[in-house]
Structures are given as structure tokens and as C-alpha cells.
Amino acid sequence: MALHLTWVFVFGILGNAVSFMVSLAPLPTFYQIYKKKTSEGFQSIPYVVSLFSAMLWIYYALLKKDAMFLITINTFNVFVQIFYIITYFYYGPKKEKIVTVKLMLLFNVFGFGVIFLSTFFLSNPSIRLLVLGYICMAFALAVFAAPLAIVRKVIKTKSVEYMPFTLSVFLTLGAVMWFLYGLFLKDMNIAVPNILGFIFGVLQMILYAVYRNHPKKTVEESDLKLQLSDHSVIFDAAKLGSNVCSDVSNNNGRDDALNKV
């Protein structure tokens, strides 16, 4: 029993450490937004959805009562995503500000409110936790499946400039740590989604190895806007958050491509 709890602690610490770094990965992007005083065509939906995801997992962890590491990383992520959203809202154009408010109301107020009210008042605590766990797992699976848009873009362009290798490595490591944490905690709602996260992480690294030496294509500005749109709807994830962090590489790739035009 003591050894079992030790492994839960170890993988919880490692999972938190990796997820902390992934959560902070968009900071260079927001520094550029701050310097240029514009949101540069980026969209707020990845950060809104990441905030919604963190709120769900905190609610789940509080009901579960023995998942402290889920609380620590997702509480940190709540504050980080709020900072990103406020920064984006401050420097974004009026149209994007309205869209951001609508997304916040849809996901973080209405969506979370419906889930909370439909589960919190269930008389059986076990059923309540089971239902909420299935909701969290389904959402996490959708989050981890979202990088398929990046995979499609890499295969189409035969270029990995929009899929940084370091990020793929950290996301894969994070998936492994959280899978093992969920496994030793005997919580399949945590473990199962990270199996998919690991598979897609390995797939991205394989694609990187295949296309890393392939000549870069010149990307027109209209294509760049499309790529930014593609990445903006990829829900990052655990975290939950790979798409959020892919904005960093988008920013660099966008500048390089515009220099070529």
C-alpha cells in the first residue's frame, strides 16, 4: 500500500511539472501581442476551452477527494488561462472581444453551469462522481484527438514548422505521467484519455522525423490565416492544451512566411 501511494505521489509530481511547463508555453506569443498591441489574428477559443477543461477537472477532483495533484495543476491552469484571456481581450479588436465574451458565456458559464447543476444534486455520491467522470473523460478524449488538424497540416505541407518537436515531446511525456498517475490511482477517467494523448504525441514525433529535413514551402498570407484558424480550434489540452501552445510556433512560422512574401 505504501509503495502504491509512493508511485501515485511520484507520477503526480512529474505530471504537474510537465503540465506547468506546457501551460506557460504560450507566454512568448502573448509577449509579442503585448509588444505589438494587437492580437495578431490569434483567436481566444483555445484559452476559453482550456479554462473550461480546468474547471471541470477541479470539480471532479473535489468530489473525488483523493486527487490533490489534479487540483494543483488545474488551479494553476485556471489562473494562467484567465491571464491569457484578459490579455487577449485587452488587445483584441472589438469583434474578437464580442466573440470572446460569447465563448466565455457558452463554455464557462452556461456549459459548466449545466454540468454542475445536473450532477451536484444527484442523491447518490457514487453516481454523481461516475457521471462527472464520464463527462471529463469524453471531453479529454476530444481534446487529445484535436491535434489531428496539425497532423493533417504537416502531411499536406510536408513541413513541421507549425509542429515544434519539443512541445510534442513534453506533451507525450505528460500523457505518460498522467496515465500512470491515473493507473496507480485506479481512476480510468484520468488514465484512458492519456492513452490517446500518448498515441498522438508519438505520431507527431514520427512525422517530425519524416519531414524535418523537407524544404519549407512558401506560404501565402491567406493560407496563414487559414492555418491560424485551424490551430485556434484545436483544444489544448492537458493537459490538456497542445493547441494552445502551438500558437507559439504559429507566431514564428507566420513571421518567417510573411518575410518570404
TrEMBL record:
Keywords: Cell membrane, Membrane, Repeat, Sugar transport, Transmembrane, Transmembrane helix, Transport. Pfam families: MtN3_slv (PF03083). The keyword Cell membrane applies. It is a multi-pass membrane protein. Its main location: membrane. PANTHER family: BIDIRECTIONAL SUGAR TRANSPORTER SWEET10, RAG1-ACTIVATING PROTEIN 1. This is Bidirectional sugar transporter SWEET. It comes from Hibiscus syriacus.
